[in-house]
Specification:
The complex is a heterotrimer. Chain A is an alpha/beta fold. Helix content of chain A is 32%, strand content 20%. Chain A starts with a strand and ends in a 21-residue tail after the last helix. Chain C is 74% helix and 0% strand. Chain C is built from 12 helices and no strands. Classes of the chains: A alpha/beta, B alpha/beta, C mainly alpha. At the A-B interface, helix 7, helix 8, helix 9, helix 10 and helix 11 of A face helix 5, helix 6, helix 7, helix 8 and helix 9 of B. The structure holds adenosine-5'-triphosphate (ATP) (2 copies) and magnesium ion (2 copies).
């Protein structure tokens, strides 16, 4: 059995006088120990809200959460607050995008790390301090003893993110949720952090949910990938099949939109027309339909059902992109010698 | 002769302290001796990490910040020494596209007023009707609906706002457009639209671009020539394809290997050059080669004492590294822990 | 075929935007205000207050200066009648109708609050605007002028406002005008700082840079972009200032600087007058105090709601 089983998670924000916002609208996925599962999608598709819901960090007022999230068989969504609080930090932990705002600015890093150790592992004094220094050392912060006494603003962005990761893994959580942990960082620092996360998963068997908008990041890190659009998972598959044969027109479109470092010069990108503002409500049909070049009449017949293929691919689309159409996308180039990549997505869609 | 040529440009921001009277206690060496040439109709891509001085360089070329020393030759005139009215007049020929499409548009101006402001400032197209027609035409060119004219920036999506920003630059029919991170605030699917638009406009109008970005993949996609910046200086410059196939500077190698590629096959089979530590502060840059504190190929001599010049090593390929030739020949090896091999972990 | 066009129509219908747009920021802010219940509460309080002030002579049941001879109704020594028919809130220590005095008193409070804030706002905005404009337009010389103006301003800001008000009052003597000027003058440096700071922040924004790059003249940039975009915090402050001004005016009158007379009652004076009856007739202090608090609250609510409505971060 998987460590975490999320089933039909739905989060609706409802404030008086405004229309309800279905931020997350039926998200299902599972995460096993030692597995890295990616949630990818563009801004506003509900990635962060999903993670906050799993951690029980959403406000109580004006928020309706539905579905199930079984952690080791226990539903996180119905668990009493105190149990959840105990689990946060010890069983599951989260890393946020902005390391500066998730650290307390007026407390030294060391104290913040030992605080976690004290709360969840009952460590105190010198042993706690030693463990904290060890942790910082393990996440690659040089001179950890000195750093323990420093304040967050004295560290660089990369260092802060490392400190945050150290705090998150202090109690060897079984589940780690990373919400865009590298988006605010430079690529060379991002490479360091991703390497660190890979190590953690490999050494400690932590289950990792990686949230990002960067398909490149998930391509190198994740075992399973879920592509989200407008609050739903529109395609889910293992890493290689997803990139080799993307099925949902949105995934195909995303891959065609990204300028690849290894693509030859002069090749046109294939953008998805419009923006998320053009979406329709899922109740009326496929939310992506207005932007979709692969649209058919059936797309407006209500929300498309989730289709499971025998290969483990799952997608929500009534007119999926077939293998031949994306073959071109899969003719991948290898670094460093660049070769031709023809990212044709689909040409026969009626626009 | 190139259209825009920058020579030994320096922009140093004074760091001021003091209670009653400000005292200069040091400088941020944001741009510290940069030379580059942008050919007419070409695209020069400037890439580098946060804080390396890319934006400052772009702004200095447009004289939006004060230049400490050096020259910016544009079409035979040195912009760096121009002042007052002559400078203002010259501005119509060089335009800028900004990173944040929201903050670079005045929230209280509607699109028509945003687009006519530059025209009015230069007394271009005085006739009301002709001006409106010209603005409409520009809107069409950037793919915005005509109804957009009476709307305000906050009523558009991010991608549309960036189109407004591009239209504002285009409306003056400039020769050069400096685009500072034109797509980094946009969603992936919208990024591609804007990149394509910039390319189409260049083809149709013969524009010259200086594109600034931190994303090497984006820069490589649209540039003919790429300059890699590190801590205020250019460390390597090469035609786009050459740079990709044979990066010569250690920093370029590291940068290139750090850019994720959306393809598991590639990701699993590539080697990474991991850099230790962070970017040093531009207020207190390292001596000698600015990169020596993080360089896996660092040598005992020269690196920390002598600042390498940008020197020609091939056709249009320039590198600022003392040991570029030795590294290329394989005589110098990087520190062993800096290169991470391909991941073998594989869960299918 | 027709089924197909139906679908296309349906898609068009589903994606059609309800709002045609073309609304400026002020309009949007106003719409947000309208939807905010706190803002509406504040607005209703203010509206009531203004209406009462304007219609005071017609609303007041009695002449605020007319005294009932207390001896007639007074049973025991020191007894002041409370609410009763004819005097809904009772009478004060001199036998004047409390309700009428409160109603007529609102005029003074409104007048002082508005005039003082207007004074502070205008002078402060001119000072701050000049400072900001010099800074934006004239390079080094501009920085000098700004420096000098702002150092003076800092000094004024450092003086406690009540002290400043008392000094002004000692120079000009007692009276309504004194209170107005005193309260207004203390507001000047606040507004000046605020506008200048706001202009400075705006002048570093990207759209100002964009206008400069377009070749727009500095003067035009300052007047057309920087100034209008700097006004919202100042307007919010003005609304909040009305609350402080009313409280401060009451305070000065309480200290006897207002020079209110029997015919022109003022809430602060009423509060002062009630002092001697505090032990026996607390209500005489409570009425004007509640009036002051409620009006101040009205302006504060509206001001805070305006701050929220105009906040660019909350803008969609
Ligand atoms: N507290 C809230 N109240 C109302 N709506 C909210 C709230 N938080 C989030 N939303 C809405 O929910 C949707 C999903 O937001 P979420 O933050 O999960 O996006 P995301 O996928 O993490 O995007 P990003 O990449 O920008 O972080 C958005 O449309 C957002 O506007
Ligand atoms: N007006 C200024 N005054 C003082 N320092 C400045 C100013 N503008 C920029 N700097 C500093 O100069 C350095 C270079 O900044 P710049 O904005 O050019 O970097 P960048 O390469 O564009 O980075 P990013 O990718 O983050 O935009 C930074 O250290 C920055 O803090
Ligand atoms: Mg998010
Ligand atoms: Mg920049």
């Amino acid at each position: 059995m998987a460590l975490l089983e999320v089933e039909d998670l739905a989060v609706t924000f409802q404030r008086k006088g405004t229309a309800p916002v279905h931020a997350v609208d039926g998200v299902s996925f599972t995460v096993a120990e030692g597995q890295v599962v990616g949630l990818v999608g563009e801004s506003g598709c509900g990635k962060s809200v999903t993670s906050l819901a799993l951690m029980g960090l959403l406000a109580k007022r004006g928020v309706k959460v539905g579905g199930k999230a079984l952690f080791d068989g226990n539903d996180l969504l119905t668990m009493p607050g105190s149990t959840l609080r105990d689990m946060r930090g010890s069983e599951m932990a989260m890393i946020f995008q902005d390391p500066l705002s998730s650290l307390n600015p007026v407390i030294p890093i060391g104290l913040q790390v030992t605080e976690v150790l004290k709360r969840h592992r009952g460590m105190k004094g010198e042993p706690a301090e030693k463990e904290a220094a060890d942790l910082l050392d393990r996440v690659g912060i040089p001179d950890p003893r000195r750093r323990l006494k420093e304040y967050p603003h004295q560290l660089s962005g990369g260092m802060r993110q490392r400190a945050l990761i150290a705090m998150a893994v202090a109690c060897r959580p079984r589940l780690l949720i990373a919400d865009e942990p590298t988006t605010a960082l430079d690529v060379t620092i991002q490479a360091q952090i991703l390497e660190l996360l890979k190590e953690l998963v490999a050494q400690q068997g932590t289950a990792l949910i990686m949230i990002t908008h960067d398909l490149g990041v998930v391509a190198g890190l994740c075992d399973e990938i879920n592509v989200m659009y407008a609050g739903r998972v529109v395609e889910g598959a293992a890493r290689r099949p997803l990139f080799a044969s993307p099925t949902h027109p949105y995934s195909v479109g995303l891959l065609g939109s990204i300028p690849r470092l290894d693509a030859p010069r002069g090749e046109k990108l294939k953008p998805i027309p419009g923006s998320v503002r053009d979406n329709i409500a899922w109740a009326d049909g496929c939310a992506f339909a207005p932007r979709c070049a692969h649209r058919t009449d059936e797309c407006l017949d209500g929300p498309p059902a989730l289709v499971q293929t025998y290969t483990g691919h799952a997608y929500r689309c009534v007119n999926p992109v077939t293998g031949d159409e994306v073959e071109a996308v899969t003719a991948a180039a290898t670094l460093p010698a660049p070769s031709i990549v023809d990212a044709t997505t689909d040409s026969d869609g009626e626009a | 002769m190139s259209l825009l040529s920058v020579r030994d440009l320096k922009v140093h921001f004074p760091i001021k302290r003091g209670v009653l009277f400000d005292r200069t206690i040091g400088h941020v060496y944001a741009v510290d001796g940069v030379s580059l040439d942008v050919e007419r109709g070409g695209t020069y891509g400037l890439v580098g990490e946060s804080g390396c001085g890319k934006s400052t360089l772009g702004r200095a070329v447009l004289r939006l910040v004060d230049v400490t020393s050096g020259s910016v030759e544009f079409d035979g005139k040195d912009l760096a020494t121009l002042k007052g009215e002559p400078l203002r007049k010259e501005r119509s020929r060089l335009q800028m596209v900004f990173q944040d499409p929201m903050s670079s548009l005045d929230p209280r101006q509607n699109v028509e007023s945003i687009l006519s402001e530059g025209l009015a400032a230069h007394g271009m197209i005085g006739d009301r009707k002709a001006r409106r027609a010209h603005i409409q035409q520009t809107l069409d060119a950037v793919g915005l609906p005509r109804g957009a004219l009476s709307r305000y920036p906050h009523e558009f999506s991010g991608g549309q706002r960036q189109r407004i920003g591009i239209a504002r630059a285009l409306v003056l029919k400039p020769d050069v457009i400096i685009a500072d991170e034109p797509v980094s605030a946009l969603d992936v699917s919208v990024q591609a639209q804007v990149i394509n638009l910039l390319e189409e406009l260049q083809n149709d109008l013969g524009l010259t671009y200086l594109v600034i970005a931190h994303d090497l993949a984006v820069v490589r996609h649209i540039s003919d020539t790429i300059g890699v910046m590190y801590l205020g200086g250019i460390v390597e410059e090469a035609p786009s394809d050459v740079l990709y196939v044979s990066p010569r500077h250690p920093y370029t190698k590291a940068l290139m290997s750090a850019v994720p590629v959306p393809d598991p096959e590639v990701e699993d089979s590539r080697e990474r050059v991991l850099l230790k530590g962070d970017l040093p502060s531009p207020a207190n840059p390292p001596t000698g080669c600015r990169f020596h504190t993080r360089c896996p190929w660092r040598q005992e001599t020269r690196c920390d004492t002598e600042r390498p010049e940008l020197t020609l090593v091939g056709d249009g390929h320039k590198v600022a590294c003392h040991w570029a030739a030795e590294i290329e020949a394989g005589e110098i090896q990087p520190k062993s822990d800096a290169v991470v091999g391909a991941t073998t972990a594989e869960v299918a | 075929m027709s089924a197909k066009t139906d679908r296309i129509d349906r898609l068009a219908e589903l994606t059609a935007r309800k709002d045609e747009g073309g609304h400026g920021l002020w309009y949007e802010a106003f719409r947000r205000l309208r939807r905010n219940p706190l803002a509406m509460t504040g607005a209703v309080i203010i509206l009531l207050f203004v209406l009462i002030a304007i219609l005071a002579p017609w609303l007041a049941p009695h002449d605020p200066a007319a005294q009932t001879w207390l001896g007639e109704i007074r049973g025991a020594e020191g007894f002041i009648p409370g609410p009763r028919s004819g005097n809904w809130l009772g009478v004060d220590g001199l036998g004047r109708d409390e309700l009428s005095r409160l109603i007529i008193g609102s005029r003074q409070s409104l007048l002082v609050g508005v005039v003082a804030t207007l004074l502070g706002f205008t002078a402060g905005a001119i000072l701050g605007g000049l400072s900001g404009a010099f800074l934006g337009m004239f390079g080094k010389a501009g920085r000098w002028v700004d420096s000098i103006l702002m150092r003076f301003n800092d000094m004024a800001l450092a003086v406690p406002s009540l002290l400043l008000a008392i000094s002004v009052a000692t120079i000009l003597g007692q009276g309504l005008v004194t209170v107005m000027i005193a309260v207004g003058v203390t507001q000047i440096p606040v507004f000046a700082r605020l506008l200048r700071g706001s202009m400075l922040a705006q002048s570093h924004s990207d759209y100002v840079l964009a206008s400069t790059a377009l070749g727009v003249r500095k003067r035009r940039i300052v007047l057309n972009h920087i100034l209008p975009n700097s006004m919202s915090p100042v307007l919010v402050q003005a609304t909040l200032s009305l609350a402080t001004a009313i409280i401060e005016a009451a305070g000065l009158s309480f200290l006897g600087l207002g020079g209110a007379n029997a015919a022109n009652p003022e809430w602060g004076v009423m509060l002062a007058d009630s002092q001697q009856y505090l032990a026996t007739n607390l209500r005489l202090a409570v009425y004007p105090a509640v009036a002051i608090i409620i009006t101040a609250l009205g302006f504060t609510l509206l001001g805070e709601a305006m701050r929220e409505a105009l906040d660019p971060k909350l803008r969609k």
